[in-house]
Design goal:
By secondary structure, the protein is an alpha/beta fold. It has 3 helices and 9 strands. The protein has one domain. 27% of the residues lie in helices and 10% in strands. The chain starts with a helix and ends in a 40-residue tail after the last strand.
Amino acid sequence: MLTSASFHLSETKTSNYRRKIYLRGFTLIELLVVIAIIALLMAILMPALAQVKKQAKAVACQSLLKQWGVIWSMYCDDNNGNFSRGLVTDNGWHRGEWVICLRSLYRTKTNILKCPMAVKRRILSNGTEAEYGGTFNTYYMPLGGSGSTGGAEEPSYGGNNWIYDPPPGTIDIQSRPAEWNWRHKDAAQAFRVPVFADTMWRGGGPYENGTRGDPPQYDSQWINYNREMMHFCINRHKESINMLFMDWSVRKVGLKELWTLKWHRQFNSNGPWTRAGGVQPDNWPEWMKKFKDY
């Protein structure tokens, strides 16, 4: 027979037992195991997530370049199919003339000047901002004359300076022969002619080799504004850049593939930096040797 006291004692023991069950937490070893598992999962997932993020930015970059295709097409349609002159006398930087002639068409579009992978200025070792950009950096574009700081823009796209339509009698633009320029949008094999792309400078007019055509010795190398091919040869999108062509198509271009494109009318797309021209993997700078050959 259970008395009131024995019932109370039994209830207390049961309550204490339950409390011990409910209050029991992880032991130190169990906690360390859980932390280790979480750390392992993070180590596995983080690189994959980072890669997905980069791929998303690359897609966004191509989307922006397609918008640039519409802008360039509109400009050409308004000018009998011709590109802009490529010569400006009020600022001193012909390579960035596209900014002036297209500004009214892009001005209302947010961040259309910047590849999503390159949105901040390049910082030099002394802590100051560089005028030129880099693989993941924007460059400086004044709105006024050369050296102006008022209302500056900071793009990370730039143009092929061989597309321009210079005035009659023009012999060259910044030592680039005017007779080699495309001038008009209806070029033969327009799908091979670069118009606009990821860059580290305002624009470039690449040659097949030499000072204006050789590859950089390391990624994001800057020597001078006239190192034409270097402005485009940057590892922004996994051994490639994104590019708008004269047929207004957009695609990824391998860095070594840059030398196979038709930059100007006389450009040898089988030149010395192509497989057809005899280049060997060991001929490339160390940072490019393992990239896909073209």
